[in-house]
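Model the whole thing, not chain by chain.
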Amino acid sequence: MEILDEIKKDYVRDLLQKGKRADDRKLDEYRKITLERNPLSSAEGSAICRLGNTQVLVSAKIDAVEPFADRPTEGVLSTNCELLPLAFPAFESGPPSEDSIELARVVDRGIRSSETLDLNSMVIEGGEGKVWGVYLDIYVLDYDGNFFDASTLAAMSSLMSASFPKFEDGKVIHEPAKPLGLKSKVVSCTVSNFGDKKVIDPSYDEEIAAESRITIATTEETLCAMQKGKRGSLTKDEVLGLIDIAFQKGAELRAYL
Amino acid sequence: MGGGTNKPVLFVDGKRLDGRDIDELRPIKIKASVLHRANGSCYLEWGENKIMAAVFGPRECIPRHRVDPYSAVINCRYRMSPFASLDEHSKAGPSRRSTELSKVIREVFENVVIGSKYPKTAIDISMEVLQADGGTRCAAITAASIALADAGIPMKDLVCAVAVGKIDGKLAIDFSKIEDNYGNADIPIAVSSRNKEILLLQMDGLMTKDEMSQAMDMAINASDKIHALQVEALKEVYTRKAQDKPDEQVS
């Protein structure tokens, strides 16, 4: 496994020196994206995003919950992630790995800071202080790199297909009652960096061969989250260039939603 | 971030709650080599943040299957103590936040530590946040960098870190906890002090590209000030140790 990875690293880097990628994509080209809307009937919203061979299911389940003590008038947004053992040989059962926590937190950060979901309008009328809690569960089903962008697409799509349920006589009735009223469409763009070569939507082989990775989440107008990963460094000018790319590719990705 | 009900006035006559300018750091006090058992250590106070960092290693890499035949393996532990904040006593043990931060901090030190000097070993970096007042990850990185130098581990560079945030539409450096609570954006940045390359970059909040550019400039400028304090702290170790052992000076 690890020996194969080492060999692949050299292969990926050699190809990139010639400006090529193993799957013949252009450096700034996404793999084929498909979004399947609402594959689950048990959740208010759900989506499967396929990004090349990477496949992520996100469910958006909505329940009536107690608000956080220090935020009594705000709804709750909670994002969790499972890197399922069936998705990749090195994904193991057990407590969440740091990769899965990072993924969940980066997706959460993009959606939360964009304020696309207005937490201030999630107090339930006649709910005796209860608020709506939106639970995003990210299930990585098949892994070939860039679970960040696939997960954000699926999460956004699942929110777009969800509605707040009904609340009657102190109980939640899971039938659509009111749209979530999302304010913007958040997407993320992940780039792997190999010196002066930047590769958009890295495959698994590209991810492990890269020096650094950056994920930039945007709305139509603004940046809303960023996360750099791996040991390589970036200059300020490189970051600014990548921000331009994220806005440009963001518009492409948003068309899928 | 974001909400909260009774938002205090965060700017008065261009000054911040604690009287600082927008590009002014809180007072930083650094003392290197404070623990005797660790190979390198550092205690750092940054405003009301109090951080203890220590380095063990290079030492045997356990478990053995994690051994890298070409390089030292770097392990990082960033933890918030259950008594670190004015809020209620929190759960002990790793939170999801501390797991993520341990990972991104490890990636910072994987960049600067010259691990190839010590193949098949592990270098363990611990950062304990004893008291927290906003900006703990940056304070922890700044402290750990000194602990590594104190341990004599070869590095390409010292790392300085600081966060830039946005309150009331204005960018400001080094948020305190209260500013962080009511601010609109938070951008922790770690910089390699010599070549100003960015080693850690996180961001949440609504920002334009121009604001990001300005934020990176602010962090890079501040890194010179932090770096000077780091160098001072490392020099001070030698004067202190020379004074501690007068007997050996007799010749």
